[in-house]
Amino acid sequence: MSEQSPRFRRVLDQFAGYKPGKAPAVAAGKTFKLSSNESPYDPLPSVAAVIADAARHINRYPDNTAAALTEAIANRFGVPAGHIAVGCGSVGIAQQLLEAVGEPGAEVMYAWRSFEAYPYLTDLANATSVQVPLRDFGHDLPAMAAAITERTRLIFVCTPNNPTGTAVKRAELIAFLDQVPADCLVVLDEAYVQYVRDPEAPDGLSLYASRPNVAVLRTFSKAYGLAGLRVGYLVGHEPVAQAVRKTMLPFTVNSLAQAAAVASLAAEAELLERVEQVVKERDRVRTELLGQGWTVPPTEANFVWLPLGEESAEFSDACDAAGVSVRPYSTDGVRVTIADREANDAFLAAAASYSRRA
Ligand SMILES: *Cc1c(COP(=O)(O)O)cnc(C)c1O
After folding, report:
1. CB within 6 Å of ligand 1 — which residues?
2. Does residue 323 sit in helix, strand or coil?
3. Gap between the Cα atoms of 183 and 61, Å rounded
4. What is the pLDDT of residue 1?
5. Whole-prediction pTM value?
6. At 75, is the secondary structure helix, strand, or coil?
């Protein structure tokens, strides 16, 4: 037998794939998973009932056009159905967009540090990443504008930014968009938009309307609590939505996800009450952390960022040992998801008892 293994694209040697947040390491006692920005709440009974009902028909393929869900999104947000494309989570749509623009020489720009899927999905799409360092934990939009070349095909603006929590301001975003060439797509990744309370933050849906090269990504995973079902959507002008439909894996949004997403829009008021609880907890956690002496950038998302540098792994391990899993990012910092009060208190206690290096 030959020693040689099948040959794959060389780009696969450069990374290990997406690393999801871990469950807490300790086996005994109550543990809390604060590593993946999920909703801490069980599904709403009304949504769970719709999923159970939909489960009776899973011998059939789902609606490949997701007509009912598309209609529900269109009605909810007052956008044309033709401007909507649904996908297997918004990360699935990000992959489809990259596939639609990716070719050797194409550049994909995003702030760094930002969402971890951007670099490896860009590599997979045969495009080149251009990473523009964050400034004060937020997007440096003037530097991003200055880094645009004729090869720039797509720019992600993740707002609020994962993992730092900062949101861009409407005025600076508009000034940025005005400098982006018409043939370059700007994708506003608004996975956490429901948690935003800054009145100066932008609303992607009002910005995209007059700009054919701007699209918005949203998800049912976070505020709507459907992370396990994988459904998100894009709102953009017809050619952009078309590109996403063309690069879609057939039947990529399953029938349970479609039904649950429609039911979640119908139950949105109830879900947004839960979001409000998380927002209150977020502000309490940040205030307590500041009181404990930590540096925590202002956050508009359902998580906080602790820029701990070299100490990130150590702090993360200490939280783990206390039954709280958080998300370390090499030597940059640690992201901690806001959950219910009990979980947040467990994290705050772990943070308070951690002794920092001198
Ligand atoms: C969680 C997240 C997503 C996507 O989640 P899906 O579950 O794939 O919809 C997209 N962008 C950012 C920045 C996220 O944090």
Report:
1. 37, 89-91, 115, 158, 162, 189, 191, 219, 221-222, 227, 232
2. coil
3. 36
4. 57
5. 0.96
6. helix
